Amino acid sequence: MDALKKTVEHQTSNGKARDSTGNVRFPVTCLTVDVRPTKSSQNQFEAENIETPIPESSSNISPSSSNNSHSSLDTSSSQQGGRKRSLKEANDIDDNNLSTTPASTESSKASNGYVRGLLLDKDEGDREYVGTEVLIVRGGGGMGITADGRRDHTKDHSRKDSTAVAFLNNMKHNVPINVILGNKNKAAPSAIPHRYCVLDYFKVTDIWCEKVNGFVVIFYRLEKLFLDKKSWWAPVGSSETPTTRDFEAKALRQQCVTCTTSSPQVYDKGWMCLNSDCSTFWTSNGNSATVDLTYNPAFLHERSPSENLAPPYLLKPDSGNLCLNNVAAGITVSKGATRGVVCGNCDRCIPRKYWNAWKCATPDCGYVLHAPRDVLSASQVRTNLANTFDGPALSMDKCDESIQIDVEQHGLYRLHRYHLAPGNTVTHIFSCETLNSAIGGPNELFMALPQADLGLQRFEMSQSMSPGQLVAHFSSNSGLPYKYVVAVDSKAFADVPPELLNVLKRGSWAAKLAVPGKQQELAPFNEILTVGYLESDKMGYHDDGEATVGPTVVSLSLGGDSEMKFRMKAKFYYGMPKRGDGGKSPYNPNLPIIPGCAKPEDRRRLNALAATNCTPAELAKEAKKAFADCKATPPALLNLKLAHGDIVVQHGGQVQKHYEHCAVPSDKLRFALTARHIKPEGVASEDLWKGELPAGFDDAANAYDGDMALYEQYLARLH
Ligand SMILES: O=C(O)CCC(=O)C(=O)O
Ligand SMILES: [Fe+2]
């Protein structure tokens, strides 16, 4: 049975899409939707932002036909990113090619050189055309703010740009594109019923160059792949699809006498050479083309026969049921399954907001599709089985030379304590196979968690440019309510599955090892945040330094591997919030020079200069010179390679104040269970009971002891 799963990840375009008011003008971008069918013909959308602004319509032809079926994409799609970061930061997982802010070039690479889908939404500029069977769209990139303050083309497009190469590949290899229309598109021939609606499959028929604002811009003509049915977006009352078509009727195509390139007659004013390399490009009788152009009706009316090639999957499902039970284990955690499905009742696209189900948000629809609960073992989701020895694990962590490390062994656990500042540490406690497979250990915990009713869901980002946008990872809170960017309800410890209390005990054990001799500083943990990462989910850079949270944060990692990276916040790394922003955030001589920061010698020199009576402009000039060769984003100074069963303890206010961390899982399913001490004074009195632990929980006899008996057994085997 075919069904459709789709999503669009809305991503900012690295600040480029902000208008003069500083608001992100979303969506000015065109998202390519990478559509990949699975074995079971479930159709899956994976979106990539190809940053293609679409110009406004200048003309419309009268539409044809009638069929009101449509599929829609919900705006509440998931966002790569994390808990409490700004969107800028959410998109800012910088090093090791982990950028989540692809420029158009990167997107095309990610689509393997083909355009899989095209989103046409809020548009700008001229000459966009959205007909019922033909589209004319402008390629992305090359936009900027003009001297008179308008957003327009400020750079030439090149046929070598990855977007252009991808469209050309689609045209030459006859690969269809799934087109989605947003309801902010002014060129749409009829009202678009949902925020995003799937139009149909289209093929690329022509690619040519024009001039917009004096710059070369590449245009694409797309034609509906199958012409037998009236397009659902045709205006009501428009004529039906003709039963016969004249496929021979073509617009004029003429070879240029200067460059011999053939161009179609796109505009009714007459033919022009549309090869941007030609000296006669975009001229008519020796004069540059005017701007008040209307399309050549013959070019718009051209049609080519439907292809013999059937599309790889149905864009609109013929049934709402996904046969997920019949497919390989892991489908519900694979990237495709992290996306939306089309509602079986009302065609709306439903994001996977809940761990266990897709639930349609259309009022009174009531459609729910349950995600089967695959019971996966940790070894099924781990691709890198490096830490699967019986004895203490090997370390693969990396850290900057400024960071001192204590290496210890506690039973079968290896412990690395990284000193970011005196009394401020990040401790990595490495597990191993013997510990993981112990009774009540990480293997059991990992298999039990997805079955437990933790209420995991993707919450809405409060700072999203697109209301309703969801964070990428699933989370649920237990114990005292933990307030960060998303409003997460909390389950009382009295009501949580025993596995979470087991995690809490392990966390307390780990914190005592990580922060030796400071037992009195360790306020008891009274909250656990469970974060579930499906394939490709990650958490962007953020800190855990909320005022209501104690100084010790401990996380247990279960399932897939992950990197956990720590970097200094830009302000502390460079001595200014952001390097190279034209002096808007000037160098601040009062910030501490922390070991591991960029150019400490220059910082000292700048600070000495600041202590003289130099002007702010002189200081800014010197700072600009000193940091001219620095990358804009600080590098990770500590990169922990977390494996199943590993525990990380962050301790000390400066870890959160001066540094930020991110989690980048590499496998299909991972949980991070993070315990904190929430200061009760910030919690509403009616919620305080939620943090109360069952009687006997704190008894020494019930505490986790680091599985010391297993260590003894291992030693006995060694000797
Ligand atoms: O996924 C992880 O290991 C880290 C999670 C985290 O940083 C957090 O929940 O604050
Ligand atoms: Fe965190």
UniProtKB/TrEMBL annotation:
Pfam families: 2OG-FeII_Oxy_2. Residues 10-23, 96-110 have a biased composition (Polar residues). Residues 524-679 form the Fe2OG dioxygenase domain. Residues 1-110 are annotated as: Disordered. It comes from the Eukaryota. GO terms for biological process: DNA alkylation repair. InterPro entries: AlkB-like (IPR027450), AlkB-like_sf (IPR037151), ALKBH2 (IPR032852), Oxoglu/Fe-dep_dioxygenase_dom (IPR005123). Residues 57-78 have a biased composition (Low complexity). Transmembrane segments: none annotated. GO terms for molecular function: broad specificity oxidative DNA demethylase activity; cytosine C-5 DNA demethylase activity; ferrous iron binding. This is Fe2OG dioxygenase domain-containing protein. It comes from Ramalina farinacea.
